[in-house]
Design a protein that fits this description.
The chain is built from 2 helices and 12 strands, in the order ααββββββββββββ. The protein is mainly β and 213 residues long. Strands 1, 2, 3, 4, 5, 6, 7, 8, 9, 10, 11 and 12 form a 12-stranded antiparallel β-sheet that branches.
C-alpha cells in the first residue's frame, strides 16, 4: 500500500518538479519568431482521448454468471478444479457430458483453444464411458471434442447389447452405432436351446419280432 501511494504521488508531480528533484537542469526552449510573410504554424492538435475500452460493469445482484446460448456445451464437474487460460485439471468424481456422451473417471485434464472452447479431454483412472447402448471402460481415455472420437486404452473393455469385447484399444464415435476394437476378443450370446451340452439323443429301442406296427 505504501509503495502504491509513493508511486501515485510521484506520477502526480509536474514535470518541472520531477526534473528539479532528479538534479537535471530545466531548459526552456523559446519558439523562434516567424519570418515576415511566412505562413503561421498550424495550431497543435488536442491530445486524442484515451481509446482504452471501458471496464466491464459488475453484474447486478442475484444475476448468474453462467453463459447463455451455448451451441455445443461440454459440461465438466468434479470435487476439485484448478486451471488457467489453456487447460483445467479436475480430480475426484469427474463427470464429462457432451451431447449423448457421458464419461466418468478419477482425474481429467481439459484443454482450451484461444476462444476458451474445450477441444480435448484426457481422462485417467477407472474410466467409464457410455454413449447410447455402447459402453466402454479402461484406465485411460482421450476424447477429441470437435470430432467426437473417444479412444479408451489400458485393458479396455466394451459392450454393445449382448456383445462383449476386449482388446488393446476401444474407439467410439459420438452419436454413432459403430464400435471399433483392436486385437479384439468377442463374446457373443447365442440363441437358447433345449439340448443339454454333452448328451446325445438315444436311438429308439428295436421292436420285438412278429409285432405289427
Amino acid at each position: 500500500m505504501i509503495e502504491f501511494l509513493v508511486m501515485a504521488l510521484f506520477l502526480a508531480q509536474p514535470a518541472s518538479s520531477q526534473a528539479a528533484t532528479s538534479g537535471a537542469p530545466v531548459v526552456a526552449q523559446a519558439t523562434p519568431p516567424a519570418k515576415p510573410g511566412a505562413p503561421a504554424a498550424p495550431a497543435a492538435k488536442p491530445a486524442a482521448p484515451d481509446s482504452a475500452a471501458p471496464a466491464t460493469p459488475p453484474p447486478a445482484p442475484g444475476t448468474s454468471l453462467a453463459p447463455t446460448g451455448l451451441r455445443n456445451p461440454v459440461d465438466l464437474s468434479a470435487d476439485h478444479v484448478t486451471g488457467d487460460r489453456n487447460q483445467a485439471v479436475l480430480t475426484g468424481n469427474v463427470v464429462v457430458k457432451h451431447q449423448t456422451m457421458d464419461i466418468r473417471c478419477e482425474k481429467m485434464t481439459g484443454y482450451y483453444n484461444a476462444t476458451r472452447q474445450v477441444t480435448r479431454v484426457v481422462c485417467a483412472g477407472n474410466v467409464r464411458a457410455v454413449d447410447g447402448d455402447r459402453q466402454a471402460r479402461g484406465e485411460r481415455a482421450d476424447y477429441d471434442v470437435p470430432s467426437g472420437v473417444l479412444v479408451v486404452t489400458g485393458s479396455p473393455e466394451a459392450r454393445q447389447g449382448n456383445t462383449y469385447l476386449t482388446g488393446t484399444k476401444v474407439r467410439l464415435v459420438l452419436g454413432s452405432e459403430r464400435l471399433e476394437v483392436e486385437n479384439a476378443r468377442i463374446l457373443v450370446d447365442s440363441p437358447s436351446t433345449t439340448a443339454v451340452p454333452g448328451t446325445r439323443k438315444k436311438a429308439p429301442a428295436p421292436k420285438p419280432a412278429g409285432t405289427t406296427p
